[in-house]
Design goal:
The structure holds 2 protein chains of 2 kinds. By secondary structure, chain A is α+β, with helices and mostly antiparallel strands. Chain A is built from 4 helices and 5 strands. The chains are: A alpha+beta, B alpha/beta. The structure holds zinc ion.
Chain lengths: 99, 418
């Protein structure tokens, strides 16, 4: 069985979309919720637990979307910048090494 | 004409005029109360909790626990209790038969005629009301936090609370609310219980319930309304701030998604117990007293964790429906279907593989990122107002923070008795 993976939704407004386009990364966006753009960074079980522990406001939405929600904005901003810098959504190991 | 509330009893406000109050409370012992008790004093004295006239005595508590009824047989599901410790009782020298003055924010608030001082097993209360004794259930936690003695007796408000802006227009007690409904010419009104800033899923819950409530009535004139009744009580970090909840709910009317002819927003002071089915019955009682005829219930109404099944509340409501003065309206969830290109009910659309469900948590996460969701999901006027509330009332955040808890203006103030 494949390991369960849980998305972190980084919501993309025009400002973020512009940065992605400039970096040639517009393809990373998926559309979710009536066309709202999102980049999804996937966490495995261990990463999920680490995130929920490091950021007490964060919540695992087990009922509806099975995603990790309510990370503070500055945390999402840092993740987003790392994605642009690394040109990939595989950033969690590096990101979490600081916590 | 008498206004009849829950249990077929007339709703009577238990409020003394200030001139009389000043005389009556002279020389009485003064006991400060916490916010939960202050909220309940308002609930009792304005008739939100009719037919209760005060905090429960042992016979009522015992009957509520064992039969979900007051001692007089009227359906009642949540204990309304006043607690004190043995030490406090002896420090203040309070005994049965005394009248005392309850103070809030250091000013006289209510007269309490202590008829009875008693004990009751808190575990038994928890098992009866919440169906569990686990202290991680927030209702049990609240019960275990009671001190060891309970005081029963009548409450009379001696000093009306001053409701602070922006909440003041939304505090509409039962007798006043019933007048407003008559002025509007509404013959059916459906309650929407909330502690949320509305996304379109909530908006459609209300619209769907309005349609269900309208039923066979004539459509010549608008005669059915939705009453948003926001619960204002203890806040937790991460909740929407109260100001954003009440103003954004009303914004749905102001921005034209509803109108004066079918929508009104109000508040009730109450600290949620998350008692699921029992809380659903309590909400029915509250809204009966407010003059409503119908009440919306979704799945797992007022539940928490996995303590209650999604339809437990509906079953309990059914079991006492002949004794409740309000008709339950059951709601299915609404979601976005890209195929339909609209928000639709899960009971209607069959593009199941394409459904995009959205929870309050996901919407909060979008708002937290400062991203404006599409208007089909979240109304732009509501988004702008949430952000405005964050600046104006939330110290930069639309969600409750430590700073908000510490520095916010209280929803109501009790001022010196003039
Ligand atoms: Zn569809």
């Amino acid at each position: 069985m494949a390991e369960e993976r849980y998305p972190i939704n980084i919501w993309v407004n025009e400002e973020r979309y512009e940065k992605l386009r400039e970096a040639g990364l517009a393809d990373l966006c998926e559309e979710m919720l009536a066309g709202l753009k999102v980049i999804r960074v996937y966490a495995n079980d261990a990463q999920k637990d680490k995130i929920l522990k490091a950021f007490p406001t964060a919540k695992f939405d087990s009922a509806t979307t099975k995603s990790i929600e309510l990370l503070p904005k500055d945390v999402k901003d840092k993740m987003f910048d790392l994605i642009v810098q690394k040109k990939s959504v595989e950033i969690l190991d590096e990101f979490l090494s600081n916590y | 004409m008498a206004e009849i509330g829950h249990g077929g009893k007339e709703i009577v406000e238990r409020i003394m005029e200030p001139s009389e109050a000043k005389e009556k409370i002279k020389g009485l012992k003064q006991v400060p109360i916490r916010s939960q008790i202050a909220n309940e004093v308002i609930g009792i004295s304005y008739g939100f909790f009719s037919p209760l006239e005060g905090f429960m005595g042992k016979a009522d508590l015992d009957s509520v626990c064992k039969k979900m009824r007051l001692a007089n047989g009227i359906v009642w599901s949540i204990p309304i209790l006043f607690d004190m410790s043995e030490a406090e009782l002896s420090d203040y020298g309070i005994k049965e038969g005394d009248s005392i003055v309850l103070t809030y924010q250091d000013n006289p608030f209510a007269l309490f005629e202590v008829e009875e001082i008693y004990e009751y097993d808190k575990k038994e209360i928890c098992q009866a009301v919440y169906g569990t004794t686990e202290d991680k259930h927030p209702g049990c936690a609240r019960t275990y936090a009671y001190k060891d003695k309970f005081l029963g007796g009548k409450i009379t408000l001696v000093n009306r609370p001053k409701i602070n802006p922006p909440f003041d227009p939304y505090f509409i007690p039962p007798l006043e609310m019933r007048k407003r409904f008559k002025e509007k010419g509404w013959v059916r009104i459906v309650a929407h219980q909330t502690r949320n800033v509305p996304h379109t899923g909530h908006e459609w819950l209300m619209k769907g319930a309005w349609l269900q409530t309208y039923g066979e009535l004539s459509i010549e004139k608008p005669i059915v309304g939705v009453l948003v009744n926001a619960i204002i009580g203890e806040k937790r970090k991460g909740d929407y701030i109260d100001e954003a909840i009440i103003l954004c709910q009303d914004e749905l009317r102001k921005a034209g998604y509803f109108g004066d002819h079918n929508h009104m927003t109000s508040l009730t002071f109450w600290d949620m117990r998350y008692a699921g089915p029992k809380e659903a019955v309590f909400h029915a009682i509250l809204r009966t007293n407010l003059g409503l005829t119908h009440h919306m219930y979704g799945r797992d109404h007022a539940g928490v964790g996995t303590y209650y099944g999604p339809y437990d509340a509906h079953k309990l409501l059914e079991s006492v429906k002949d004794e409740l003065g309000i008709t339950p309206v059951y709601s299915m969830n609404w979601l976005y279907c890209p195929h339909c290109g609209e928000v639709t009910s899960e009971g209607l659309c069959n593009h199941r593989d394409e459904w995009q469900k959205f929870s309050g948590t996901v919407i909060r996460s979008i708002v937290m990122d400062g991203v404006k969701p599409p208007r089909l999901i979240f109304r732009p006027e509501v988004f702008d107002l949430v952000m405005e509330c964050a600046e104006k009332y939330g110290f930069g955040s639309p969600f409750v923070t430590d700073e908000y808890l510490e520095k916010r203006t209280p929803v109501f103030s009790v001022e010196p008795l003039e």
